[in-house]
């Protein structure tokens, strides 16, 4: 049978962001896939050194509209690591609360999108409806539905007041009952079982060798979670479990995300109960030279920020690694051998987020101009130039 | 001469083009509105579907390289076939003298035309996504047509082998509707699923699965050609339930047709909104391994007058 190309992207109704998956198909079966990203490069890492440490959280927040707490959180953790700042307890708890609320809203968003991808628009609309109260909570706590601007170096910007707590708990009860309804609807639907079980299996070995993170890894039986492995904020002060599934298929990924919502609710409840009575920030006079890393568990997996400072108001180097960057290549394994219908689902199952994954790519006449090695060579040359200039 | 004129009027005005188009578009609005309410949305105003069609007629029709004539004729033929079904059903129900020998076979053929034309038009456009959609549509067509024809044979058999629509209606008038027997219920169920597949509704919207293959068979269509296809689907939403009522639920020339129609319509919309899309091989399995044995069972039951 002759091979044909079915393009998913750069503009495609499957996903809302520009991405390009070249599916090479025989009939309906996908035999190979080519993954191209780089349609949305915005140069955050370049912009960052031109801003002050107080401005950067607002910048990195805009890396992604969905993980808009994870990036600033990872950034301030990196700066605090660099400057050895001890953040007040209450700020840590508030960070945890906002971070977990973000996980709930992100997972609900994915559940809705997953429903949309398999043509189940009712699940889509219902999941997003029950995501709405979570966004309202954000508006109440932080002042914004998205882009919360909660984190700053040395603490958080807004307090959670005593009279807000009962309201948050009420909304959590509502969300919990609705999520359990959704969970039941998804886990008990025979048609969904037929569509999702055994599809797009990422084995444990493949998950480890591709280095996937977050729910994608946990659905393949790899129990990694930065919140447990490298406890930050208040994660070591509350009781919760890592949700791990062994199957590695799309159904397992959906199950992990749904069950994680309950863990998040559990964490938030404990945080609200034990909210310590300290200030929410400390004043920082000076940041020393040095380097620091911050990592946190975004809804899609580990977010990693590296900061190098020279004692001034600006960092000299800021490096971001978003989770989808690790998860995307695993599609090579999951998609092959499935039909186009399943391939589209596999691509969506890692909950991809391109705006945070984008790296620079240069195209000329529709062809990739520089390969990975070319770019690497350029960066070496540039480094040599900088070194030569510094030696003078 | 007056015969031709009468047919022309029937074809163009009532119960043909104008009537079916208006009712069909109103129904597809109702479908969208009910779906919207089920999904906590507000839904469009009543004239939305009309506005869509009128807008599409005003748009440029881009014709891709390939078989241009087939590409353009396909939507027109499929719309004409649905209008003809409407005229045939109307005449068979209200003017028995117009029902002729073999018109039920003609209706089955005409019902086959919209999917066939979709396949032809999609293949003519030479778009890879369209051709994937066309192959899916073809598979789906073969899948649902088998049980559909088997249960239709069952109905003909019950009416002492008559292949006139009017005789089928007449038989139900004297012996009670087919639906009130076990084999009739089986027929009804299979007809409902066939309708779902023919309309391209979830769970059988495989040929135009937008998340996988953009618009599938309709990817290259625009302007009036797309409008004709949309109109075909809208008209089928009215004509197919009428076909079901005529064949298994005692004909459409009584006021009870209204609630019968409402039941079929609401069932369709509910199934559409409470299921995910199935894969094409699953759809094939469903129709061939699930519905076909059921149809044969119905056939056997029908032999024993159950």
Overview of this structure, please?
The complex is a heterodimer of chains A (392) and B (306). By secondary structure, chain A is of the alpha+beta class. Chain A has helices at 44-47, 56-61, 70-83, 89-117, 121-142, 162-188, 190-196, 204-210, 214-218, 226-229, 250-273, 323-327, 331-335, 340-349, 372-391, and strands at residues 3-8, 20-26, 29-36, 151-152, 155-156, 289-298, 301-310, 315-321, 363-364, 367-368. In chain A, the strands form 4 sheets. Chain A has a 3-stranded antiparallel sheet. Chain A starts with a strand and ends with a helix. Chain B has 306 residues and is mainly α. Helices cover 73% and strands 0% of the residues of chain B. Chain B contains 12 helices and no strands. The A-B interface holds A 4-6, 12-14, 25, 27-28, 115-126, 129, 189, 191-192, 194-195, 339-344 and B 35, 38-41, 128-129, 132, 135-136, 202-203, 205-206, 209-214, 273-282.
Order of helices and strands of chain B: HHHHHHHHHHHH
Global Rg of chain B: 19 Å
User: Gap between N and C termini of chain B, in Å?
Assistant: 47 Å
Number of domains of chain A: 1
Total number of strands of chain A: 10
- What's the architecture of chain A in CATH terms? Orthogonal Bundle
**Content of β-strand of chain A:** 5-15%
């Amino acid at each position: 049978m002759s091979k044909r190309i079915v393009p998913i992207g750069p503009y495609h109704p499957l996903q809302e962001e520009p991405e390009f998956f070249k599916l090479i198909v025989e009939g309906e079966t996908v035999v190979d896939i080519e993954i191209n990203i780089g349609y949305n490069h915005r140069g955050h890492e370049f912009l960052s050194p031109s801003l002050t440490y107080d401005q950067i959280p607002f910048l990195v927040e805009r890396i992604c509209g969905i993980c808009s707490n994870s990036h600033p959180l990872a950034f301030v953790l990196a700066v605090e690591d660099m400057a050895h700042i001890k953040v007040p307890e209450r700020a840590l708890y508030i960070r945890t609360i906002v971070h977990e609320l973000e996980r709930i809203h992100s997972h609900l968003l994915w559940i809705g999108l997953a429903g949309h991808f398999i043509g189940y628009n009712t699940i889509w609309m219902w999941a997003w409806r029950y995501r709405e109260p979570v966004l309202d909570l954000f508006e109440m706590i932080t002042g914004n539905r998205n882009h919360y601007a909660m984190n700053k170096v040395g603490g958080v910007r807004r307090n959670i007041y005593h009279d807000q707590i009962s309201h948050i708990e009420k909304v959590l009860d509502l969300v919990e009952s609705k999520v359990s309804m959704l969970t039941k609807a998804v886990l008990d639907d025979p048609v969904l079982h037929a569509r999702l079980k055994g599809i797009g299996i990422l084995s444990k070995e493949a998950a480890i060798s591709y280095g996937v993170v977050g729910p994608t890894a946990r659905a393949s039986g790899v129990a990694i979670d930065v919140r447990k492995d490298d406890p930050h904020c208040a994660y070591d002060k509350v009781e919760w479990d890592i949700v791990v599934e062994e199957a590695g298929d799309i159904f397992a990924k959906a199950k992990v995300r749904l069950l994680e919502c309950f863990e998040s609710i559990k964490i938030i409840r404990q945080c609200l109960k034990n909210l310590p009575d300290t200030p929410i920030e400390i004043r920082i006079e000076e940041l020393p030279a040095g380097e620091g890393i911050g990592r946190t568990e975004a809804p899609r997996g580990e977010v990693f920020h590296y900061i190098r400072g020279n004692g001034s108001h600006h960092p000299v180097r800021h490096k971001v690694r978003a989770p989808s960057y690790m998860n995307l290549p695993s599609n090579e394994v999951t998609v092959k051998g499935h039909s186009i219908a399943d391939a589209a689902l596999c691509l969506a199952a890692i909950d991809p987020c391109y705006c945070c994954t984008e790296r620079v790519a240069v195209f000329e006449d529709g062809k990739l101009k520089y390969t990975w090695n070319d770019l690497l060579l350029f960066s070496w040359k540039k480094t040599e130039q900088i070194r030569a200039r510094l030696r003078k | 001469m007056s015969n031709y004129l009468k047919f022309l009027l029937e074809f163009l005005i009532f119960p043909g083009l104008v009537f079916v188009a208006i009712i069909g578009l109103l129904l597809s609005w109702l479908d969208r509105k009910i779906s919207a309410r089920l999904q906590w949305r507000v839904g469009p105003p009543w004239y939305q579907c009309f506005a869509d069609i009128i807008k599409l007629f005003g748009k440029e029709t881009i014709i891709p390289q390939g078989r241009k004539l087939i590409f353009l004729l396909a939507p027109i033929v499929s719309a004409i076939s649905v209008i003809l079904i409407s005229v045939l059903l109307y005449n068979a129900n209200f003017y028995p003298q117009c029902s002729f020998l073999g018109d039920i076979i003609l209706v089955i053929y005409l019902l086959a035309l919209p999917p066939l034309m979709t396949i032809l038009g999609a293949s003519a456009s030479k778009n890879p996504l369209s051709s994937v959609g066309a192959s899916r549509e073809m598979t789906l067509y073969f899948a649902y047509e088998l049980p559909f024809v088997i249960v239709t044979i069952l109905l003909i058999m019950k009416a002492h082998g008559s292949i006139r629509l009017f005789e089928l209606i007449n038989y139900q008038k004297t012996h009670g509707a087919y639906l009130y027997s076990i084999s009739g219920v089986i027929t009804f169920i299979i007809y409902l699923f066939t309708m779902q597949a023919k309309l391209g509704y979830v769970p059988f919207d495989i040929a135009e699965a937008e998340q996988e293959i953009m618009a599938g068979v309709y990817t290259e269509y625009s302007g009036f050609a797309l409008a004709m296809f949309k109109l075909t689907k809208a008209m089928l939403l009215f004509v197919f339930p009428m076909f079901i009522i005529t064949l298994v639920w005692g004909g459409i020339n009584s006021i009870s047709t209204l609630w019968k129609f409402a039941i079929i319509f609401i069932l369709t919309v509910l199934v559409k909104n409470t299921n995910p899309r199935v894969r094409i091989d699953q759809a094939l399995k469903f129709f061939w391994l699930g519905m076909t044995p059921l149809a044969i069972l119905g056939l056997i039951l029908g032999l024993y007058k159950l």
